[in-house]
Amino acid sequence: MRKVDLRVVGLLLCCVLCAGVENASAQGLIRKLPKQEKVTAIYNGTYTQVNGDEKTSDKTETLVWNRQLEIKSLSKSKGFYDGKEVPCRWFEIKITTGIIVEGEIIPGKSGLRIYKILVPESKVIDNPKDKDTIFVSMIPIATDRNGKVMGVKKIGDGSPEPITTGVLQIYSMISHLCHYKNVELLSANEPSVTVSGIDLKQKKYKAEKIMENRTFRSTNKAEIWSSDDSPFGLVKWVVKLVREKKNQVEKRDRFKVSSRITVSMTLRQIQQDAQSELPNPR
Questions:
Q1: Three-state SS at 122
Q2: Which residues pair with residue 210 across a beta bridge?
Q3: What are the residue ranges in the chain where pLDDT is below 50?
Q4: Of these four, 130, 141, 215, 249, which has the most CB atoms within 10 Å of its CB?
């Protein structure tokens, strides 16, 4: 496997879920508040990128990385959102992307990312959007009484630094799952799986989103397995992303594949008594 600088791979994951064929009802990395105040969900999987068009050229390059995603619910707290003091929850999201050496993922220069944010509990909703936010695309972050954003991040070997925006953007640096308008329930009774002694009854969905301009087109297709018994709602997902390019003056039928990306992640562990790796914002 070829060693590369992981600065070209900014990722992680976000999930897309729904109630049925007619209406999408839940999309997001953190779909629901876990019952336990301190709990960690650990996902493992792979990220594969094929550069070039496999169908029309033999000049392709395949890159494969291993990935681990940890989502933590840390503690309840108070924060300010929309000018009001509201109940909040501290969350921490850690993404490690790299190659496995002696059973451990060794990240590249920026293959390790950790985000700690204080999120209004009312914004963790079983719905793709509410009156003022699309939750799957951006996770709202609460502030202190002086308006300071309650978030901190750590990239690679760097020191923790404050998050200055009022939201945490999910797509695409954190996840290739995105906000899908069309989400379809494929099966309401998928086989159950057991993770850390917990039986998870699953539902399976599929979703698709196409984004296009004069020179670029991306087709994002996802399969998602969810469970109400999973701490944050997410059990497994597979995203296949096809990126195409053409010259601005060419017709749409001249789009050519530039890369294909497949991301596959599965819940492997559920741990109690979650502990933070980052300090609270000062």
A1: helix
A2: 219
A3: 1-26, 128, 130, 133-135
A4: 141
Query: What is the pTM for the complete model shown?
Result: 0.85
Tokens of 143: 């502030």
- What is the per-residue pLDDT across 166-214, written as a single tens digit (0 to 9) for each? 999 878 777 888 878 778 999 999 999 999 999 999 999 999 999 999 9
The answer to whether the CB of 155 falls within 8 A of the CB of 112 is: yes
Instruction: Count CB atoms within 10 A of the CB of residue 132.
Output: 8
User: Per-domain residue ranges for the chain?
Assistant: 6-272
Both tokens assigned to 87: 């109940």
Rounded Cα distance, 78 and 117, in Å: 12
What does the alpha-carbon distance between residue 171 and residue 11 come to, in Å, rounded to a whole number?
A: 8
Amino acid at site 104: E
At 209, list the tokens: 């989103």
Residues 6+ apart with CB under 8 A from 65: 6, 9, 46, 47, 48, 97, 98, 99, 111
- Cβ burial, residue 6 (10 Å; 0-12/13-18/19+): buried
